[in-house]
Amino acid sequence: MSVQNQPKYADKFRDECLKEHWFTDLQDARDKIETWRIDYNQVRPHSSLDDLTPNEFAVAAALREPPARCRLSTGTGLGQTRS
């Protein structure tokens, strides 16, 4: 599926939150929207993140070692690596 064909956040928000809930007042709207936002950003997997949740993706990214060209080395000049 190409990026153009994937539903955007605003489309999902409208279809999954705004069309699904009645809001009795401003605080009720804030509470329901915040609950949806937390689910969207922390709980549900995203295909653009290899079907991981954003939290799982962040943890996996933090555990990955940076590419060699980005690693800092000690005792050598900038951008040089030890052999």
Mean pLDDT: 79
Instruction: Assign the structural class, choosing from mainly alpha, mainly beta, alpha/beta, alpha+beta, or little secondary structure.
Output: mainly alpha
Number of strands: 0
Question: Quaternary arrangement of the chains shown?
Answer: single chain
Strand content: under 5%
Instruction: Name the overall outline.
Output: elongated
Order of helices and strands: HHH
Helix content: 40-55%
Q: Output the radius of gyration.
A: 21 Å
Unreliable spans are none
DSSP helix count?
3
Question: What separation lies between the terminal Cα atoms?
Answer: 44 Å
Largest sheet: none
Descriptive notes:
There is one protein chain. The protein has helices spanning 9-18, 26-43, 54-63. The longest helix has 18 residues, at 26-43. It is mainly alpha-helical and 83 residues long. The protein has a domain at 16-62. The protein has 3 helices and no strands. The model has no long low-confidence stretch (mean pLDDT 79).
